[in-house]
Amino acid sequence: MKWFAELPPQTAAFLATVLIGFVIGLEVHSYRRAHQLDLGFGTTRTITLLAVAGFVLTLLDPRLILFGIGYLGLIILLALYYHHLLDRNEQSLLPILIGLLTYPVGALALLQNTWILMLYTVTLLLVLGEKPGIRRLSDRVRETEAVTLAKFLIMVGLVLPMLPNQPILAELGITWHQLWLSIVAVSGISWSGYLVQTYFLPRSGMIVTGLLGGIYSSTAATVVLSRRAAEDAQAASRPYSSALVLASGMMYARLLALIAILGHDSIAKALVAPFVAALLAALFAGWRLKPAGKQDIDDEGAGDVKHPLEFSTAMVFAALFVAFAMLTRYMVATWGTTGLHWLSFLSGFSDIDPFILSLLDGHFAIAQKPISDAIIIASASNNLLKGLYALVIPRSSLLLPGVLALLFMSAISLIWVIV
Question: What b/e readout covers 212-229, taking b as 16+ CB neighbours within 10 angstroms?
């Protein structure tokens, strides 16, 4: 494509406009043929010429006045055409909307970066070509998801910018902005895992459920898997144990990503080796425990996992964040590194995210190694908690292979700290 890069900018923009308009026209034609619609408006030639018209009017008048007049004329023309369709009991708006969206392609080619034009084009083509998949996804989406998205946008776009970058307590050094940024990061990662598990891989098998559940919350995934094992009268040990271990393995990947996203690069680098070692141990154990052949258990995904984006959950996280910060300061001031390590071990029997993030954001006069060791200890003790859940909830030794693997992972982490 060296020759294309050497073309004059306007020539390259014109060729891109013609090519994109033609491809969109082909996709519209394919859509009509697949759904047995009359030819009507939206042939390949018409769509291509609309893109060229937008290009020419933008080229003639960079102020976009001619472009706007042409757009207004096109809207009036297509409105009259749609009125004609209604008289014939035809109500499809899609070809008309695609025509209106193709007209600006030439202007984008002239005035915007290439990646914006490509992103715009790919979006149009995906919406046109993936109707069955989009419809299936739309049928599965729950009514509450729009409200959930609104909550997340409020958390990110409204609350976060409004919070001052001032300490909550002068002694802790943690600001309101740092606190809420941690909540947003944890919620965003958990929500991503929840969405993939719920809508894209809803019947993916127990093992994939364990992997995705670990992105959401390895502790929650452990509880869910243990309950299902208890309710399954004919449960086999291998798929449940494999999913259990893989969920805990994903905890390490999740924590490492979270620490890096929040800008604690030096701590993230210090944790790469022990966390990757624990993750590899989990993957190996999960692979050894997986059922032979195609004996995995079908699973409904995250159907019984609580939604991760709730304001009540955020408030609990904030309270734990501040409480752990105060406890950390007291333990370090009173017993030094030994006190920090004991606190990190005890924090593993709760939600470790608030403890780890408060430890990273606070000012506790602690060196980097004790902080990274405390995070490793917290993750190890959290595996002990999950192993306890896996033994107590099913009230049997069904998940014992998975529990032993969790103990092995905890041992690896603790040995790393001791050595």
Answer: bbbbbbbbbbbbbbbebb
Counting Cβ atoms within 10 Å, is residue 271 exposed (0-12), middle (13-18) or buried (19+)?
Answer: buried
Let me know the angle formed at the C-alpha of 12 by 9 and 18, rounded to the nearest 5 degrees.
140
Query: Nearest CA to 361 among 129, 237, 214, 183?
Result: 183
Rg (CA), the chain: 28
Q: What is the DSSP letter of 297?
A: P
CA distance 281 to 371: 23
Q: How far apart are CA 376 and CA 373, in angstroms?
A: 5
Among 222, 220, 209, which residue's Cα sits nearest to residue 353?
A: 220
- Integer angstrom CA distances of residue 311 from 183, 197, 230, 314, 325: 10, 21, 31, 5, 21
Burial of 400 (0-12, 13-18, 19+ CB in 10 A): middle
Note whether 340 and 370 are within 8 A (CB).
yes
Residue-wise pLDDT for 319-378, tens only, equals 888 888 888 888 888 888 889 999 999 999 988 888 998 888 877 778 888 999 999 999
Please tell me the distance from the alpha carbon of residue 223 to that of residue 220, in angstroms, as a whole number. 5
Q: What does DSSP assign to residue 154?
A: I
Q: Helix, strand, or coil here: 168?
A: coil
Which tens digit of pLDDT belongs to each residue from 179-205?
888 888 888 877 777 777 677 666 656
Tell me which H or E stretch contains 293: none
